[in-house]
Fold each of these.
Amino acid sequence: MVNIIAIANHKGGVGKTTSTQNIGVALSRMGHKTLILDLDPQANLSDSFGYEDVEESIYDALTEKAKIPIHTITETLDLCPANLDLSVAEVELSGVTGREYVLKDIIDTIKDNYDYILIDCPPSLGLLTINALTASTEVYIPLDAQYFSMKGLDKLMYIINQIQKRLNKEIQVAGVFLTQFDNRVIVNRNVAEMIENYFPNKVFKTRIRKNIALVEAPIEDKDIFEYAPSSNGAVDYMKLSKEIDAAHRK
Ligand SMILES: Nc1ncnc2c1ncn2[C@@H]1O[C@H](COP(=O)(O)OP(=O)(O)OP(=O)(O)O)[C@@H](O)[C@H]1O
Ligand SMILES: [Mg+2]
């Protein structure tokens, strides 16, 4: 059965895109047929794979102008890109009946081709993120280990609970992971403890360490395993992805 995972946090810059790319690539390298879907008008994820300013994006499928565009990256990895057009999708969809289910209906047409579908959400709790959460079986929340990370969590959990009640009974917070972590920084260690208390039994053991190679790789249109296979970033994302995969085989 396919696992559809939204990577969501309305806080900006917490590592949603970096995580979607590298967890997706890691799962595909383990042999799982994986689709990475860019649902952010910033299109950083698409850019990271070298798909810049694509003509057709998920926007065209959401607005029924075309079928979902899917590009083959490797034998086991596909990408559905975004572009700036997506920035008007929320306005265009706002008057549509069943507007929260538009992405789900699109994913339903292709989901049987995959073991994992990962959705990179924009940094907001608007209609795009709601569509992602309605279409997903699970949500993962990346958190940078800063005090401000704790601040918006009640709001995020409220939205997820509302979606669970009204739109998608299946969705659950399947995991939380720390990004940009530096064990030498006291704040990082304190916040990690606070997050573990806030989400008992939900925090993955693997913490993604701060690592400059993760910043450099997308500039070269590469994932971390291709760009710097022995970097901390590659080691951490492979470890996290193995934890994620193991959780699905229980
Ligand atoms: N572990 C890490 N170590 C160092 N830098 C990182 C790490 N993870 C991500 N970054 C960098 O931090 C910035 C934000 O990361 P990213 O774009 O993945 O976050 P995001 O949550 O997707 O942001 P947005 O909310 O804008 O979509 C990027 O420049 C990225 O390269
Ligand atoms: Mg992003």
Amino acid sequence: MAGRIVLFGATGYTGRLTAEALAARGQRAVLAGRNASRLAELAAELGGGREVAVADVAEPATVRALVGPGDVLVSTVGPFAKWGEPAIGAAIGAGAHYIDSTGEPAFIRRVFEHHGPAAARAQAGMLTAFGYDWVPGNLAGGLALRDAGDAAVRVDTGYFVTGSVGTRSISGGTRASLAGAVGTPSFAWRGGVLRTERGVARVRTFRFGDRDRPAVSVGSSEHFTLPRLHPGVLEVNSYLGWFGPLSRAVQAVSLAGSAVLRVPGVRALYGAAADRLVKGSTGGPDEGERARSGSHIVGMAYDGEGRQLSEVHLSGVDAYTFTGRILAWGAERAAAGGLNGTGALGPVDGFGLDALEAGCAEAGIARA
Ligand SMILES: NC(=O)c1ccc[n+]([C@@H]2O[C@H](COP(=O)([O-])OP(=O)(O)OC[C@H]3O[C@@H](n4cnc5c(N)ncnc54)[C@H](OP(=O)(O)O)[C@@H]3O)[C@@H](O)[C@H]2O)c1
């Protein structure tokens, strides 16, 4: 029998997009969150007498009560550095599969290094960062490595926004998560091991659409997952191209910011200021705004001499539309027993490259 899908954070911006995507796939997920009346409103809107469940991360026992063995817990309750642990604990405790929408490097590292082994012992699969951050780069990188063959020792991925981007293009939850992540150490896969490094340590350009596009380095799940596909891979780099020509300036500000945050007392003050940004869901781009922007993702593999062996380009819908849809796709497959393995999994090893490529296409991002 297929496990139940429980969507925790259903009344938030990304949660609602995921609830709608699950409903569009014909999935009757349990809608979970901290506010009973808003859950009831959402259930009524989606129709079909959907089950709701109240749970609050401040009371971990209520989160533990959401799932049982073989269920799939999808969490969009973030920032995850602050609120992510109770859902992880609930899934591991119950032997339920776990999928989340985080993009936060420090949380991703904790899942792979700390929670993954416990999830494996509980026979549960754990897919962190299963949204726009960082599924399409895993796909582009995995395809580039397959095209490159055994000679590949390095893979780079890059994420770019296309179309029109306005001040309302990012959600309140994304802003809160970014605020919390500023100045925290990041990482990269170098010399065949994971190394801690400053966020935005490097800038490089990717060429597409007859233009060179700068992007800044970032910690993603690719650093943990792509070396699993190709044991010869010694270097994984992931880049964000959102800042365009300002990338060098962002790097300079990040360098200055991380130095400032090392001054005694400043980190605590910054933390208090970041907390004030977090007032509960403040929404995000509406359907019209989302339709005006899109995504372009690049994966490139190189040999030991630095020669480029392959290049894969993906493009499609905006980050939020993709996130809701891919979370729904992953939850449906995991509930049907379609996860390969247990413990902390990547998008490619979790579902297989061909299945993931088909899933991303269903969610709106495919080979350009
Ligand atoms: N990977 C990606 O590409 C991607 C894409 C989108 C979002 N995200 C991440 O996903 C997270 C959510 O983003 P968002 O824009 O959807 O933010 P949001 O609208 O603020 O949603 C946050 C959710 O957390 C819930 N929550 C807060 N405190 C809680 C508590 N004590 N107990 C239970 N639930 C609680 C909120 O409940 P209420 O509804 O009751 O306020 C809301 O449902 C963020 O970390 C964001 O960075 C990542």
Amino acid sequence: MCHRVCPFSEEREEMFTGVHCVAYLSPAGTTRRVAERIVRALQQQGIDPFVLDLACRNKQFYAQGESCCLWLGSPVYVDHALPQVQRFIRGLPEGESFYAVPYVTWGAVCSGVALPEMTQELQSRRWRTVAAAKVLGQHSSLWRSAEPLAAGHPNEEDLLLIDQLVAGTLEKLKQADVVPLAEQTLHYLPGDQEQQSWQKSLAKAIALQSPHQPDHQRCIRCGGCLLSCPVGALVWRDDYPHVEENCIRCHQCTRICPQKAYPYDADAVEARIRGFAAASREEKCTQIFL
Ligand SMILES: Cc1cc2nc3c(=O)[nH]c(=O)nc-3n(C[C@H](O)[C@H](O)[C@H](O)COP(=O)(O)O)c2cc1C
């Protein structure tokens, strides 16, 4: 039996034939670092996982055989998992003995409902969440800040917890009866804060922001921003880069642009984020759930 899932394109280049797949979307690189640690920990146990960067449009995921385990990483954006990651889950084949370990990286503001949301989506495809993690990572909107939130994270201490996550998950998967995480485990935010998180969304936040397009007076049409976009939201239009609707405001284009053609009010962004971080009662630490 071979089920095909393709995040973006119809092209097929590599095929998942093993039991473990580590998939992630990581605009600024932190979620990828955690994925790399998961891969290393699996390899130390003699497992060679299939690795899927969801930003690569020429790779596909096949869940093959009787059973498999998907390690799936997303950064938290406005208290949720990235829409592209959720869409990837919705495209998964329905599984009987398919297991998942969702993990998120978050910038010390609020991890929100990203994990329960990913778990619910996985469950709707009958993938059972056996473990999960939320990993602190330097806030990727604050790259111009002298002191970004969660600077230096994930550090070695955080990554040692990832080693524990892998070891604990493999132990669980060895059991004849694999016990999924209890439903309430991932509802760790205080009631009203979780409620507020469910009401937030990246789309609503973007609707309040000014349009994100390059300034044609500054742009030299080098095309670097198109290559930097992890979700394929940039296209050429009338000879200039144009940001499409599916932009997630990761600002990789802003960061890479040698001409500073993309407007970015770093001070205003920082003030807003620090306000949200101060209002959140969530403990700013990495946590694993087994
Ligand atoms: C548009 C945007 C929204 C974000 N929203 C949140 C958030 O709601 N809570 C939080 O703690 N961090 C938030 N972050 C920070 C990222 O979740 C964090 O830095 C993450 O580790 C980035 O992962 P990456 O390096 O793999 O892209 C946000 C970052 C961006 C760019």
